[in-house]
């Protein structure tokens, strides 16, 4: 597994990098045979250290965890524990569904944009209804089953996930509702 361990405006020593590699490798190897890479970023938030970890699996799924603590090692250990818990749940769901993916998840390219938030005032009308694009990136849309999409959304900690439904070959959306349940949008194809 490839590791990218970095710090935002803080120095990361070799001892911490070795600790991260050993502990994260042990946690992930319990639940996944072929993790591809891991990205771990340390930063400061006032008096606390923040650790964000992202692990890409060979199945195409991505697990993300974030934790903070007053010490940098404690922040990583809490993040690693969250990651291990997510991986354990992921593995249990795979066993419960009795489905093992024989091929990696197919990914399709798509454009992704970040739009500027406009401050609304009551007395000023906007000049245009076109939003201002701040950034333009490329993103990947995975081809998954609905159950895998829900797992991916939960592993990534995202509120919404767009995916190509393997069974119907159309774009679908899963999202977390305000009541805590999961919503699924499956558009009907016009015939």
Automatic annotation (TrEMBL):
Residues 130-183 form the Sigma 54 modulation/S30EA ribosomal protein C-terminal domain. Required for dimerization of active 70S ribosomes into 100S ribosomes in stationary phase; 100S ribosomes are translationally inactive and sometimes present during exponential growth. Its main location: cytoplasm. Gene3D superfamilies: Ribosome hibernation promotion factor-like, Sigma 54 modulation/S30EA ribosomal protein, C-terminal domain. Belongs to the HPF/YfiA ribosome-associated protein family. Long HPF subfamily. Keywords: Cytoplasm, Translation regulation. It comes from the Bacteria. The keyword Membrane does not apply. It is found in: Cytoplasm. Interacts with 100S ribosomes. Associates exclusively with 100S ribosomes, which are dimers of 70S ribosomes. This is Ribosome hibernation promoting factor. It comes from Pseudodonghicola flavimaris. CDD domains: RaiA (cd00552).
């Amino acid at each position: 597994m490839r590791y990218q361990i970095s710090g935002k405006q803080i120095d990361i020593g070799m001892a911490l990098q070795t600790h991260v590699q050993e502990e994260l490798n042990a946690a992930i190897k319990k639940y996944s045979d072929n993790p591809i890479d891991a990205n771990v970023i340390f930063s400061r938030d006032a008096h606390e250290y923040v650790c964000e970890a992202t692990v890409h699996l060979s199945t195409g799924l991505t697990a993300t965890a974030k934790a903070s603590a007053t010490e940098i090692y404690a922040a990583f250990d809490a993040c690693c524990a969250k990651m291990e818990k997510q991986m354990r749940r992921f593995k249990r769901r795979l066993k419960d569904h009795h489905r093992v993916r024989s091929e990696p998840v197919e990914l399709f390219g798509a454009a992704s944009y970040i739009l500027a938030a406009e401050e609304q005032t009551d007395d000023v009308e906007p000049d245009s209804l076109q939003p201002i694009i701040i950034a333009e990136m490329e993103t990947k849309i995975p081809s998954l089953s609905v159950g895998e999409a829900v797992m991916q959304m939960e592993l990534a900690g995202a509120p919404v996930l767009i995916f190509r439904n393997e069974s119907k070959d159309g774009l679908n959306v899963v999202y977390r509702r305000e009541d805590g349940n999961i919503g699924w949008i499956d558009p009907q194809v016009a015939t």
